[in-house]
Specification:
alpha+beta, globular, 18 helices, 7-stranded mixed β-sheet
């Protein structure tokens, strides 16, 4: 009898294991990533991968929805649909937002107004250096929790606005929890989310441990929560308690594979994987697989960045000469083997890409001061000493693949044509990022990503040195004044489609910034490359958007398949 029971139990275990394996293959979507997410705290500066994950982990008062035709829609999320109340008929800048009740953080604690107030204060905390700080100050004077009500927040606006406008303005904001469970104990998060590594008193304090734990495994209210996080692997699982309904896809795994070849192999072997930015040499192979794809132009740009803090790029004539010696279309054709139409605006003539709303509104206003011209380049470079006509370019083929080697080879030829000796250093990802962080380079080939359609470039000229985004170490008072004016003008009226008459004012400031940057020449702004996302043909309702990437995944569906996964 025991033998029969044992055999029956063994068969049950085997069947369960087979079903579990098939289910895991069916339900786990793998995102093949170029690099690991840097910080999963959405109010801090983040790379592209971190932003994609945070869209799934965190909700905002308003969530941006992207429909299939590419249109964007802004809908109340953590605030009630009818939660916008004007508190005073005579002063319409005083409003109250009623929060959605019955929403819970991933740790089971209820979401309240205290979390909203904490998040806004953390954004305003100077030490956090949040990119949302200036954004917040453009339209909110002050905020507080309504006394006696845990679900109401009172705002004092800079200027009265409609409900639809307010929703647009709140769309970049993600809400953080005020309280956090650490080692079984509920604690408050400090407003300053960074700790000074040189401060030994804070380094070993409970607060320091709390911040480290929060940075590793943050909790939100979103459709997915973090299950595990390693340096090269982040696993999310569906939030069963999500207030809008549990997502159909059970798990999402972000894997950093280090090379496009590994990513393509994974896509070949796994029926549920998604891969961005596929190089031409792999497209034939992928076209034979049961895959779908979508192409789009992201909100980003590539550039050759000059380190203006040290020779030879300390010399503005050398910067201008090198820039004038670069044939951008020639580099683009070597970098991207896909068929690219010049008219689609891939080649950039400014720090504001050709497809940005500013350049589109007035292309003639954004002419390149140092356009490709070998004669002009040679004249400028002839004014530099012979020993000063050489530099080293850093590239990272482990993230950009073979195409960046082709580009570097082409650029070496272009520099030789104008009398400049350029040496290429191809580094691994860790060394590449360390060199950039330390400012230890002459020039570097970089991708700048994470913009939205308004192209707020102010963080690229932060006053601090590395590792902030001022990679070129520019110090210019006139530019600082223009950037400040740009931020002050990024108000509710400047959103395209909301009040078209205000856009020219913002465009004029962008043009002035362009002109000043062209005088300084901190980089040669090259191009924006169309991206293609490949994914299984078993995925339905897929939307890939240049700003939020694959972060609409909670609405994706799986086609019904057999138990075997075929």
């Amino acid at each position: 009898m025991r033998r029969y029971m044992f055999v029956a139990l063994l068969i049950l275990v085997l069947i369960s294991g087979i079903i579990a394996c098939c289910s895991g293959q069916k339900d786990e979507l793998i995102y093949c990533s170029k690099q690991q997410p840097d910080t999963l705290i959405p109010i801090l500066d983040q790379n592209e991968e971190a932003k994609y994950l945070c869209e799934l982990i965190f909700d905002g008062l308003v969530n941006k929805t992207v429909v299939k035709n590419g249109q964007e829609r802004y809908e109340w999320a953590l605030a009630e649909d009818n939660g916008f109340i004007e508190e005073d008929d005579e002063d319409r800048t005083l409003i109250i937002i009623s929060l959605r009740k019955g929403v819970y953080w991933h740790d089971g604690r209820e979401f309240t107004a205290e979390d909203v107030i904490y998040t806004l204060n953390a954004i305003n905390e100077t030490k956090n250096n949040s990119p949302l700080r200036s954004w917040l100050k453009t339209f909110i004077k002050s905020f507080e929790r309504v006394e006696g009500d845990s679900y109401k927040v009172r705002l004092v606006l800079v200027k009265e606005m409609s409900m639809s406008t307010l929703k647009e303005l709140f769309s970049p904001l993600k809400i953080l929890p005020r309280w956090y469970m650490y080692e079984g104990e509920e604690r408050k998060l400090p407003h300053n989310l960074y700790i000074n590594k040189d401060d030994t008193n804070q380094k070993n304090s409970a607060t320091g441990k709390l911040i480290d734990a929060f940075k590793c495994l943050p909790i939100g209210t979103g459709p997915y929560k973090i299950k595990t996080k390693k340096s090269e692997d982040v696993l999310l699982e569906a939030n069963n308690e999500y207030y809008l309904g549990r997502p159909e896809i059970e798990k999402i795994r972000m894997q950093v594979l280090g090379s496009m070849a590994k990513a393509v192999k994974l896509l070949d072997n796994n029926p549920y994987a998604i891969l961005f930015d596929v190089e031409q040499e792999f497209s034939d192979r992928l076209s034979r697989l049961p895959l779908e794809n979508q192409s789009y132009l992201p909100y980003n740009f590539y550039a050759v960045v000059f380190n203006t803090k040290r020779d030879p790029f300390r010399n503005s004539r050398f910067r201008k000469g090198v820039s004038a010696g670069i044939d951008k279309m020639g580099l683009l054709s070597s970098f991207s083997k896909n068929s690219i139409n010049v008219e689609n605006g891939c080649v950039n003539h400014s720090i504001f890409p050709t497809r940005s709303i500013y350049v589109q509104s007035c292309p003639a206003c954004f002419q390149e001061a140092n356009a490709f011209n070998t004669q002009n380049a040679q004249e400028l470079l002839s004014q530099c000493s012979g020993s000063g006509r050489e530099f080293r370019l850093l590239i990272c083929s482990s993230t950009e693949g073979a195409r960046v080697k082709r580009l570097a080879g082409k650029l070496v030829q272009m520099m030789n044509d104008v009398g400049v000796n350029m040496v290429v250093d191809d580094l691994n990802a860790a060394s590449y990022m360390a060199k950039i962080k330390d400012g230890d380079f002459d020039a570097v080939f970089m991708e700048f990503a994470g913009f939205d359609h308004l192209y707020d470039i102010r963080s690229l000229f932060a006053k601090k040195d590395f590792p902030n985004k001022n990679y070129w170490v520019v110090r210019d008072h006139n530019l600082d004044v223009l950037l400040k004016k740009f931020g002050e003008t990024l108000s509710w009226e400047s959103f395209p489609g909301h009040n078209e008459e205000i856009i020219p004012g913002l465009k004029d400031i962008a043009r002035d910034i362009h002109n000043r940057v062209e005088v300084i020449v901190p980089a040669c702004f090259l191009f924006t490359v169309p991206r293609r996302a490949y994914y299984s043909d078993r995925l339905m309702d897929v939307t890939i958007h240049p700003e939020v990437g694959f972060a609409t995944i909670e609405t994706w569906k799986l086609k019904t398949v057999g138990v075997s996964g075929n």
